[in-house]
Amino acid sequence: SRDLLLRVTLQGALLAGVALAAFGIIDRAHPEDVAPVRTMTFCVVVAAELLRVLASRSSRWTFWQLGAFSNPYVFAAVAVSGLLTASMLIVPFAGAAFKTTNHDPWEIAVLISLALTPVTVIELTKFLRQLNVRS
Predict the structure, then answer these.
(1) DSSP string spanning 14-61?
(2) Over the stretch 24-47, which tens digit does the pLDDT of each residue have?
């Protein structure tokens, strides 16, 4: 449908925007080395997508209205995927295998902030749409 196409396009643009923001912020902090830039951009995209999965369970109801465990299989898949991704940053041999780098706490804060941006916009859009329907 046209509505679905618009939602997918906007969500894709949000994801691309946070990926580019992560790239730019970390590239400015590490202009001499592409490895931290690549690692952070990858982690932001993965985290944003995992959070988007939770938000995409319904086009009408927010995550909080559905409940975290309304679909335990999706929640488990997101949790396992998130832990595997985090292990690439935490576990030394996993980091070496995937050629990831360690990041300062401020960079992890950037990762979390950017990853939360698309899901926050998606959830606020659903909430505002519900308010319009009630009015």
Answers:
(1) HHHHHHHHHHHHHHHH-TT-HHHHHHHHHHHHHHHHHHHHHHTT-SSS
(2) 999 999 999 999 999 999 999 999
Low-confidence ranges of the chain (pLDDT < 50): none
* Angle ∠(89,15,75) on CA atoms, nearest 5: 65
Distance CA 67, CA 15 (A): 24
Smallest CA-to-CA distance from 63 within 22, 123, 134, 133 is with 123
The CA distance from 21 to 88, in Å, is: 21
9's tokens: 């396009």
Task: Report the alpha-carbon distance of residue 135 to residue 132 in Å, rounded.
Answer: 5
